[in-house]
Recover the amino acids of this structure.
């Protein structure tokens, strides 16, 4: 029996919403680009935030002991990962956490390895620290991607590569890396003295038939050779509350990361982020499970629609996240041109694959399906009509 109504259409226009209220967009736009969801957050989170608002004073906030207990309990019971309190550093978001960790690990001019296509902010986070991006392209295999192990090892062997920035689950490829894959990644990295920085912000958004494994939970070597970045924000639709955690068992590296967090002045959080995290991890587990089933239904509806109406475009397998990667290489247009056409003709806003690496992303688009089924199907109908005679 369904407990939550994800079919409910929430009107987000007029709320200064980045996704829906960009002034450059037509009024009837359907935005399926930036990665946040159109669903109301879990009722327990709403109740906890409402109680805090009713207090009426919003001064500087401390992070209580119960905050750490919620994190430790969640990852212990849901992912069989035992976290110690002292490993946890809180901050405002995973992107600042990526930048701070790179600053702590690498000197300007050194290289950070990442799998492409890759989340676009990875590029800027690396370059903003004066470091160089080293790409190891993923390999297409059928309707998914796999590691190019030979290329990965060759690049790890470069003495200038000091860290590997992993995305687990992977955005935008939709992979949920297996325990065996994670173990092999670490073995290669350790052989070449490369630290692993694992961005696990989408860790709860996993489709049926797949299982998320925290990188640091795989083995003691994985734990000791890695830094984990996670947050409830993507999973529970809390991005605007700005709360995230860096988890690092290495005391000296943790000290350097903490120093970088203070240099960047992202060491304080607002009064609502910790409260939302506790309500999410302590009281909203059934909501995330039902959400994943709904997202899987959206994915299947989209895949069926493309097969019937736009068969020239291939929808890749979605194992995790709510971001669907679509192969549009049979189009007469480049990815950027296709996105522009759909914006102008269909009033649907999507992401061009080139955002995620020019060579790896050309010929692909990314679609955010975290919206009501009604809005999703309207967008797909618009896309199909706009592509008549083009694709």
């Amino acid at each position: 029996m369904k407990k939550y109504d994800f079919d409910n259409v929430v009107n987000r226009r007029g709320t200064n919403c980045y996704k829906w209220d960009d002034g450059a967009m037509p009024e009837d736009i359907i935005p399926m680009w930036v990665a946040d969801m159109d669903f109301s957050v879990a009722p327990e989170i709403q109740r906890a935030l409402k109680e805090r608002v009713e207090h009426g004073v919003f001064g500087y906030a401390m992070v209580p002991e119960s905050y750490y207990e919620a994190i430790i309990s969640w990852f212990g019971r849901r992912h069989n990962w035992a976290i110690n309190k002292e490993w946890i550093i809180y901050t405002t978001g995973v992107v600042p956490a990526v930048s701070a960790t790179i600053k702590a690990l690498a000197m300007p001019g050194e290289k950070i390895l990442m799998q492409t296509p890759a989340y676009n902010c990875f590029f800027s986070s690396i370059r903003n620290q004066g470091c160089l991006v080293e790409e190891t392209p993923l390999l297409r295999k059928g309707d998914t991607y796999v590691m190019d192990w030979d290329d990965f090892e060759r690049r790890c062997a470069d003495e200038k590569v000091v860290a590997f920035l992993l995305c687990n689950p992977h955005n935008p490829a939709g992979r949920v890396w297996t325990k065996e894959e994670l173990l092999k990644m670490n073995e290669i990295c350790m052989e070449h003295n490369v630290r692993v920085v694992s961005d696990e912000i989408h860790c709860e958004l996993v489709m049926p038939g797949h299982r998320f494994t925290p990188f640091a939970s795989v083995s003691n070597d994985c734990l000791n050779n890695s830094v984990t970045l996670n947050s409830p924000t993507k999973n529970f639709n809390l991005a605007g509350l700005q709360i995230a955690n860096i988890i690092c068992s290495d005391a000296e590296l943790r000290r350097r990361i903490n120093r970088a967090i203070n240099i960047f002045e992202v060491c304080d959080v607002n009064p609502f982020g910790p409260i939302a995290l506790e309500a999410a991890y302590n009281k909203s587990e059934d909501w995330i499970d039902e959400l994943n089933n709904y997202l899987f239904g959206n994915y299947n509806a989209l895949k069926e629609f493309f097969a019937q109406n736009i068969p020239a475009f291939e929808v890749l397998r979605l194992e995790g996240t709510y971001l669907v990667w679509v192969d549009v290489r049979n189009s007469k247009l480049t990815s950027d041109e296709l996105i522009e056409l759909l914006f102008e003709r269909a009033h649907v806003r999507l992401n061009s694959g080139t955002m995620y690496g020019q060579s790896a992303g050309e010929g692909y688009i990314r679609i955010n399906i975290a919206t009501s089924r009604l809005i999703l199907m309207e967008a797909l109908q618009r896309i199909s009509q706009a592509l008549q005679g083009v694709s």
